[in-house]
C-alpha cells in the first residue's frame, strides 16, 4: 500500500491505495464520491470521466498514484457554490438530456471540458467530442441539444 | 399555451437533480458494514463435461472466506422459467434444469463454475484466477440449423434434442394459409436474419446479499426492473425463503431495456452466500461479464411469404422462424418468439390469413430473452421488409401499398388473436409525410448525388402490443405470473400524497410523471406528491416495468387507488360541510358543494381524516390510504409510421443516417418531453441494430464480441437529430388514462426504415439486384451487396 494525496473538488485528501488502484476506485471507494461511475472495463464508455488538472480524463484509465498532487474535479464538484445547478447541469435538466442517469456524470464532465476548449461548438463538433461517452437511453438527441443550449446557441435545429 | 401542471405538461424531471449532482444511489453505491466480495469463475469453453473444480489454491489465497461450486447448490432449486409454451402438437416445451452454479456440464461461455468470496474485491479476483476447472470439452452447437440436425451434440443430455418447441399459430389456419399462398397471383418471399443483440444498459448488473441471523431475514439489493418478481422467483423456487423473510431492493437502476427483468444466478448466489457466511456479499459485474451473462436479445432466422393480388391487396402471410434461446431458458424467454411475436404479424394491415411457425432452439450461447420490443421488433422487421419488397416487385409506391391495406375500423379482430381497440394509421402516415418533408426528398437526393452519394428513403409502419394482459388470458397462454399492477396512495394529515407503486423507474421518469396524474386528479401541486418504488418492503406487490406497461398498467392502478381516496375524502368533506357526497365535486384542490359557495380545502379534509374529532366514525374509518390492483382488459396498441433517409457512399459502402422522422400514436400523453425522450432512445437502439450492433459467436461458441472494443454501440456521431411527433392520438379505450405506452416504439419501428432506405438508395442508383442486406448494414456488407 502507498499513500496518495490530491485535491478533490477543492479539498485536500489523502488515502492509502494499492499500486494497481485506479483513480475511479479511489474516488468511489476511498472517498465515497460515488457520482463517478464505472460502465465498462475497456475505457470506452466514459461514465467515469472527471477533470484532472482541468482536462477531461477517464478515471478508469489512470492509477490513483498518477494523480498524486493533482487537482481533481468530479460531478460532485460541478454545482455552483450556492448548491444550484451549473449552466451545463441546468441545460441537461431543461432539455431532458438524461434518463437513467448512469452515463450522466461522465457526459456533464465531458461537456464542461468541451465548452472550456470550444465555447461555441457546432452540432458535429459536439457529436465528435462525445465519441468517448456512451449513452444507451437518449439516442444522444437531448444531450447534444443540452450542450448546444449550455453554450448559448440556438437549439431550434433539434426540433423535438 | 402549453400546460405547466398536470397531465400533458412537459415538466422537468425532479429526479434529474440527484443524477446531475452525483447523488444518485445505484446498487454499486451501496456498501454494507462487514461486506465481503465475490468474484465468479466463468466457463471459457462453450460446451463441456465439468469433471471437477480444484479450489484448493484459491481457498489458500489471502483473504478468502469460502469458495463455492455447483456441489454447494445441489440442495437448492434451479432458476425458474416464467412461461411455458405449448407446441403445435399440444405438448409442453422441453424445459431443462437451470442450476445457479454449473453442475456436471458447462453449456455456454460465461456460465458460472465457481464463486470466490473474500474480504476485498481484489482478493476475490486474485483468488478466482487460482481456481482450476477440469473440463472435457465437447463439440459446441452455435448455428440453429446445425443444432436441429439429427446428429447434433445435445446441449442438454436429458432432453430429446435441441428443439425447445415447434410452435404453430394459428395452427387451425395452417392449411388455409398454404392454399391461399399456392393460389395467389403474386407471392413475395424474403429470408432474413434478425441479428443477435446485447442489451448493454450502461450500468452493469450488481447484487448484494445481506442476512440478519437475529431475525432470519434476507435482503437482496439488485439492479432489477421488477424487485417483487425477483423476490417471488428467488424466494419460492430457488432458495426456499418465504416472502415475509425476504426483501428485495432495486434502488436507482441505470437502464434495463429488458435485461434487468430476469432472475439471474448472481442474485441467488449473493443471497445464498450471505446466509451461509452471515455477512453481506457483494458482486459488481465487469462489462466483460455483462456481455457473457446478461440475457441477449433477438437472434431470429426467418423466411416470410406475403401473398397479394394484382392490385396489391394482402391475401395471406406465412412465416417460419428459428429462434435462438441460448443454453438455458431465461425467465420469460419462451414467450418472446411466440406470443410477443406471432400475435403481431397482422401489423397495421387487414391481412385475412396468417400462419406463424417458430422453432425455438437450444445452443451453446448465452440465454436469449426480452430486449426492448421483445418479439415485436422481429415481427415488424420481417413484415415491413417484405411489404417493401412486394411494392417494388409490383411497381407500387411503398406508402400507397401500405395505405391500401390499413385497418381502418376498430375494434378490429386480427387473425392472430389480438383485438386492436383503436388506432388511426392514415393519421400517423399523413403526419409522417408532413414532418419528414417527403416532398423535399427529390431535391435532397439530387444534392446528395452531386456529392457522389446515394440517397434513399425508407418508410414503414409498426404496431405494438403493450401492457401485456389480462392475467387470466396470459395464464392460458402459458404465463406463470399475473400481469396486473398495484399502487397504494397514502395521504398524509397535512395533505401531501405518497404513491407506492409496483412499477419501477430505471430512466423512464416515473417520479415526475406519476405525480402529474395525481396533481391533475386532486388539483394540487406536483410538489405535494412523492413516488416510492423499488423496494418490496414499502410497496405493494408489483410486476415491475417492461413491455411499455408503466403508465398503462401501473398508472392505471394508481388512478384506481386515487379514485378510492377521493371517494372517501368526498364523504369526509360531505360530513364537514353537512352536504350529500353526491353534491360535492373536487376541483382545484377544494371540495365544493355544487351550486353554492361552500367549500373546504383538500388539506383540511385530510387533517380531519387523521384528527377525527368532527368525523363520521360510525360510518368511516379514520385515515386516508387506499390500495388498488389493476388488471387490464386488453393490451394497448401504440402504432405509427417512420421515415428514414440515408446517404450511402458507393465507394466504401458506408451508410449515414441523414434524417429520421417518427409519427407515433401513443393515445394520451402525460409528459410530452419524456415521451419524446423515450422515442429518441428507442430510435438510437433500433438504428444501432440496423447499422452497427451484432453479437457474434465463432463456430466453437466463443463470444467474439465481448467488449466495447468489438461490439459497436451507437455513438453520438452515428445518429442525427430526430423529428418526432405524437399528435395523432386515439386514446386507449379500456384504461382510465387512455394511455398506450411509448417505451419500445422507437426500437420496434426503426430497423425496417433504415434497411428499406438503404435498399431504396441502391435501387435508385441502378443496383436493382440487391433485394435485401442483413443487419447490421456495415460498410463491408453494403459494399459487397453493391458489387455482389
UniProtKB/TrEMBL annotation, chain A:
The keyword rRNA processing does not apply. GO terms for molecular function: 2 iron, 2 sulfur cluster binding; metal ion binding; oxidoreductase activity. InterPro entries: 2Fe-2S-bd, 2Fe-2S-bd_dom_sf, 2Fe-2S_ferredoxin-like_sf, 2Fe-2S_ferredoxin-type, Beta-grasp_dom_sf, Diverse_Oxidoreductases. PROSITE patterns: 2FE2S_FER_2. CDD domains: fer2 (cd00207). Keywords: 2Fe-2S, Iron, Iron-sulfur, Metal-binding, Oxidoreductase. Residues 2-78 form the 2Fe-2S ferredoxin-type domain. It comes from the Bacteria. PANTHER family: OXIDOREDUCTASE WITH IRON-SULFUR SUBUNIT. This is Carbon-monoxide dehydrogenase small subunit. It comes from Meinhardsimonia xiamenensis.
TrEMBL record, chain B:
The keyword tRNA processing does not apply. SMART domains: Ald_Xan_dh_C (SM01008). Keywords: Molybdenum, Oxidoreductase. This is Carbon-monoxide dehydrogenase large subunit. One of its GO terms (molecular function) is oxidoreductase activity. Residues 21-139 form the Aldehyde oxidase/xanthine dehydrogenase a/b hammerhead domain.
